[in-house]
Design brief:
Layout: H1 16-33, H2 49-52, H3 74-97, H4 113-120, H5 124-148, H6 170-200, H7 206-212
Helix pairs in contact: 3-5, 3-6
Subcellular location: Plastid, Chloroplast
GO molecular function, one term: chlorophyll binding
Protein name: Chlorophyll a-b binding protein, chloroplastic
């Protein structure tokens, strides 16, 4: 598994007998209130069949209001989502880190999100785009195609797990998969918020906004 996440899912504070009591109750409440053919996350909408039967982490929510998985293979969609999640988590960490520290060879470069983008768009960012595009052509797209064709490869899996976070059993793998997915989705939303907040505030970085208590444009 390729794991790039600034946040790692933690165990619930509810353990032991309490956990055994709470979890079944929540599942039962969801199943009783949702018609059999409807989505568990959107009770008034039909459940996306491809999501329901995929077995992927996070699929239990049955969330696909636009029914995109009825047109595009869900394994392809999850591959794309996982990659965007990882990019967003790296971007989230980088956005905060560059406002706290700069490498000596980047002294004088803007530290804000929009400013750094505009400053490096024709240099470092162009290199990143070149390298990631090359990786996609050589490994990313062929791997995704194999997954769609039923090779058994999990979407987003590249065998890269230097810290051993993948786990040694199915339960550990599912937990880490779901943790990466949830944190990645939050990071994508956060990056959109960072970008818009910085633009609306006239170029003030998110860290500076927090320090000065500037929570509205």
């Amino acid at each position: 598994m390729f794991v790039v996440t600034p946040f790692v899912g933690r165990r619930s504070a509810v353990r032991g007998a309490a956990a055994q009591t709470v979890r079944p109750w929540r599942m039962q409440a969801a199943s009783e209130s949702t018609p059999a053919g409807n989505s568990r996350s959107i009770p008034f909408a039909p459940a996306p069949a491809a999501v329901r039967g995929s077995g992927l982490a996070g699929a239990e929510a049955e969330f696909d209001p636009l029914q995109l998985t009825s047109v595009i293979p869900i394994s392809w969609m999850r591959e794309s989502e996982t990659k965007h999640c990882r990019i967003a988590m790296l971007a989230f960490l980088g956005t905060l880190a560059q406002q706290a520290y700069q490498f000596p060879w980047y002294k004088g470069a803007p530290t804000t999100l929009v400013g750094a983008h505009d400053h490096f768009v024709t240099t470092a960012l162009a290199q990143i785009l070149l390298f990631t595009s090359a990786f996609e052509v050589v490994a990313g797209v062929p791997a995704a195609i194999q997954t769609v064709q039923g090779s058994g490869r999990l979407p987003g899996y590249y065998g890269f797990d230097p810290m051993g976070l993948w786990g040694k059993d199915e339960a550990s793998r599912k937990k880490m998969e779901l943790s990466e997915l949830k944190n990645g989705r939050m990071a994508m939303i956060a990056m959109l918020a960072f970008w818009h907040q910085e633009v609306l505030s006239g170029g003030m970085g998110v860290v500076e906004q927090l320090v000065k208590g500037k929570f509205t444009p």
